[in-house]
Prior knowledge:
The structure is a single chain. A hairpin with a 3-residue loop joins strand 2 and strand 3. The protein has helices at residues 7-12, 15-28, 40-47, 51-63, 82-106, 109-128, 131-148, 152-160, 163-175, 180-194, 198-209, 211-222; strands at residues 37-38, 67-70, 74-77. The two termini are 21 Å apart. The chain is elongated, with a radius of gyration of 19 Å. The chain is mainly α.
Amino acid sequence: MSIQIDISRDKRGLIRDFVYETLKKNIMELRLEPGRFISEKELVEMLQVSRTPIREALVKLTQEELIETTPQKGSIISLIDLQHAEESRFVRKTLESAVVREACELLDKEQVLHLQNLVSLQELCESEQNYGRLFELDEEFHKTIMIGCGRGRTWGLIQQMATHDNRIRILRLASDSDWKVILAQHHGIVRAIKEKDPDQAEKMIKDHLELVLIEKENLKQKHTKFFK
Length: 228
């Protein structure tokens, strides 16, 4: 699978940010597949930058558990760790279930309309089979609820733990083009917030966040080499 490079990013920011963001995006979207060996030389040629920003990016990605570096083998895209993903999902479900109840009281009409617009954009992604953009909009949907309730730091905490779980979510989207359940759940969450029904909102978001958990065994069987 070929790596996707946004050349324009290099013009807008520091080279090290460009390298880090490019590598992370391609790891998360599985263009750089779990278990793949990558060398500094390969990345220098691929991204047309010096070794220094490559090394800085690899250090940061190692800290985020997306890269594993060993003296004998060099750098390898980390395999997806189901135990880490499950812990992340547990934290996310616990926190988002509480926050979505707050959303039923705190979000105003304009914020609810923004959520509805995000779901409409997700429906366009379904028609175009653009799983990468659908994932981005999915994240924006959940982030909007969090930020709307004044829980930006809580969202940041969730993101710190989410790397393995997010790769499973993206793998699910890439492996199965039927996203109707996801979209229906998002519609249900918005409807419950709009109707100020915290019990229904909590139920909907729990069902939504457990969807990948239900499907993870099928994903593991289909993509065995991606998992630890």
